[in-house]
Amino acid sequence: MHEILQYISGYLTSDKTPGAAGNMFWALVYIMLVFGGLSVAVIAMNWLERKILAHMQVRLGPMRVGPHGLLQPIADAIKLLLKEDIMPAEADGFVFWMAPLIVVLAAFTVFVVVPFGPTHAITDMNIGILFMLGVSSLSVLGIVMAGWASNSHYPLIGALRSSAQMVSYEVAMGLAVVSAILMTSLNATGTGTLSMIGIVQAQQAQGEWFIFKFFPLGLIAFFIFAVAMVAETNRAPFDLAEAESELTAGFHTEYSGFRWSLFFLAEYSAMIAVSSIAVTLWLGGWLRPFPNWLSGSPWDQIFSFFPGVTFLFFAAICFFNTVRMPKHPLFRIQTIGLAGFGVVLGLIGLILFYPPISAWVQDIFWFSAKVAGFMYMYIWYRGTFPRYRFDQLMQMGWKVLLPMGLGVLILTASVALLQEKIWHP
Amino acid sequence: MTDPNTTLSSLDLEAHDKTYLDANELVINMGPQHPATHGVLRVILRLDGEKVLGLECVIGYLHRGVEKIGEHRTYTMFNPYVDRMDYVAAVSNGLGYCETVEKLLNVEAPPRAQHVRVILTELNRIASHQLWLGTHALDIGAITPLFYTFRDREEILKIYEKYCGARLTTHAFRIGGLQYETYTGFEKEVKNFLTFFRPKIDEYEELLTTNRIWVERTKNVGIISAADCIAFGVTGPVLRASGVKWDLRKAQPYANYKNFDFDIPIGENGDTYDRYLVRMAEMRQSVRIIEQAVDALPEGPIMAKVPKVMKPPAGEVYHSIEAPKGELGYFIVSDGSTQPYRVRVRPPSFVNLQALDVMCRGQLVADVIAVIGTLDIVLGEVDR
Fold it and tell me: What are the tens digits of pLDDT across the range B307-321?
């Protein structure tokens, strides 16, 4: 008995570094945390997208379910779960059933290697970025299966478009990623890394985010990735696969209810996943802004307040809107709900000021804030751009982004070599 | 890409009748329930991958027999029915009908009525073009302009609502003039709208005209030559975008359009982008016309002397006006009784829609959507 307890306590106090031996327990904890957080993020993203898009389009967006529509995504989720699950009579049952699973598995599995902080990751693979690109491209398989199994014309065309698009943009994406990986090798030992944590640590060691490295080479590579990642996730202006006005809903036209919501979930988590890659590779991952310029003790202190201040800011928005709520008895419950939500956010904000906790969430906060920036960009694109046509999309992928990616790769390699051999031998 | 100089004869229209069983071809049904066919249009597309080999329109899902109804109603009773054809430009429909019957009766609306008619009709042209712009942009994937155009269109509908109590199917005009005198502050409100609306056109253009994706999606898409336009009987902005300066407001002035100074914007290439530019310019011209009409609004009666029971002399008449979508013609045969013997409508959407096949051949699926949008069809008018 005593030995078992000792074993467990030894397990709990074991090395918490991701990828280190004997941390299976912490890996499980992080799996729970990441997938819980991801689900919340998708729900929040759903609400935010509808609200932000609505405000860009001079309308209000969801306002009825909960204060300012805060409960709308939950209502939608319940509706989707309760909906009849329809499978077309002519569909290939097994493939039709498998397709959403593959898509959602691919979208969620990539988070295994996403580093939310130096110690906050499920695991640290030494081929992390390769794993991420490889697994995320598996989702195209699910999309093709969905389109094929539906046995209908619109999904078939949608799936074909989608697969062609994802395959061709992956090439440009890969080249941009390689040029960032090249930059990781600019250290004393000259060995680069594919580990997601290693890439951020390389940026930390070099004292420069890769977006600014070899200006403008890093920026161009980042730009290529930023365009390719929108195409990769089938979002506007590259949402040809599910172009509503052309193909009704593209590859998931025949899906409904829970299966459809799996595609939805996968789309949003894929967006978060590719944004995480971009943040890790070019924007310094969990590192806080201005690490060199605003370094030292007062600045470290000030930046450590950011998570708490952010939550207090959201709480303040809630309270501001509580005051502005109509004073009609019908709105009483909503007003109370909004105030309560504000109180919860405020309490979280206050807890985040507590030094040990604030130190612990620092990394996660900066990482999430950067990813949230990308999420906003996704919404912004959707509100601004018309949709590309299929041939124009292909043209841009193969004739613009691919040569650009190759050029940036070659230039980065040359500059890195010059720096290593000639300027700082 | 279709060569802009192709004529009907150079297109292989016979290929249409080929069997649909070719292994390389995919036949898909677009509509009648489809988000981008502007109602209940059904298009049978023959595709080779994404390329359109040919298409066929199936219409009639919204057929209500408007023309037949006309044979069983008196001239006055039929007036509200025409609003239901092109329901986004109901005022234009009413104007066309009223003027046709007036021609048959040989009466003329008094000048004040004519002016108000011009103001309301041009406002309607703006509203119709706004709805076209919003839905066309939505079809091409830009979802935001729709809400901007609807926000501004609301102001026009408010003016209609104040004038005659209805927003969409207004029944604003009567045979021989107007039923209602303008409400107090009508001129001021219209002028306010004009000052409000002028910068809004710039706002729409800012969103789209130089937008790279928009230009790529619309330039050289759905080209139709002037010769083809004339052969198909295509009219309105589609015809003008192909470079033919034909506008019934100038060519056969009706109402009192000859009193106003305005230009007819024309395009060069006859592609979707030119049609977009032509319609944007037309909105500006409409603003010009309304401004002049409001400034010169005369006093006087609003109704000509028309008999209570209308019995036009036996005979036939054809009269057409420039509706927002093209030439809207009414052909009415009278047998001297209180009801028309035959009413025939020449709807612009119906005629323009025929060109869809020629405009889409050899293009991609996405272009079909863009072309349906740019033709600016209203199925209520196509099917009647």
Answer: 888 888 888 899 999
Beta strands B315-323 and B51-58 are: unpaired
- Judge: A245–B144 Cβ closer than 8 Å, yes or no: no
Query: How many helices and strands, by DSSP H and E, does chain B display?
Result: 15, 8
Residue A389 to residue B364, Cβ atoms within 8 A: yes
Distances (CA, A) of A272 to A88, A166, A279, B18: 31, 17, 10, 49
Cβ–Cβ < 8 Å for A103, A263 = yes
User: Domains along chain B?
Assistant: 67-358 (1.10.645.10)
**DSSP state, A207?**
T
Supply the pTM of this predicted model.
0.83
Q: What is the DSSP string of A31-66?
A: HHHHHHHHHHHHHHHHHHHHHHHHHHTTS----SSS
> How many of the other CB atoms lie within 10 Å of CB of A80?
17
Structure tokens at A304: 């450590």
Q: What is the ipTM of this complex?
A: 0.79
Joined tokens for residue A254: 């025949």
Beta-carbon contacts of B57 under 8 Å, excluding residues fewer than 6 positions away, are B41, B42, B43, B44, B353, B354, B356, B357
Contacts A–B by Cβ distance under 8 A: 84
Give the Cα separation of B117 and B124 in Å (integer).
10
- pLDDT one-digit tens code per residue, B154-200: 999 999 998 888 888 888 888 888 888 888 888 888 999 999 998 98
Q: Is the Cβ of B263 closer than 8 Å to some Cβ of chain A?
A: no
| SS3 label, residue A106 | helix
* Cα gap B68→B78, rounded to integer Å: 10
Pick from B46, B144, B148 the residue to mutate for testing the A interface (most A CBs within 10 Å).
B144
Asked if the bond preceding A216 is cis, omega within 30° of 0, the reply is: yes
Please work out, in degrees rounded to the nearest 5, the angle formed at the alpha carbon of residue B95 by the alpha carbons of B93 and B100.
100
> Using CA atoms, how far apart are residues A85 and A252, in angstroms rounded to an integer?
13
Structure tokens at B253: 């002035």
Look at B217 and A382 and tell me if their CB atoms are within 8 Å: no
- Burial of residue A296 (CB within 10 Å: 0-12, 13-18, 19+) is exposed
* Residue A52, φ and ψ in degrees, nearest 5: -65, -45
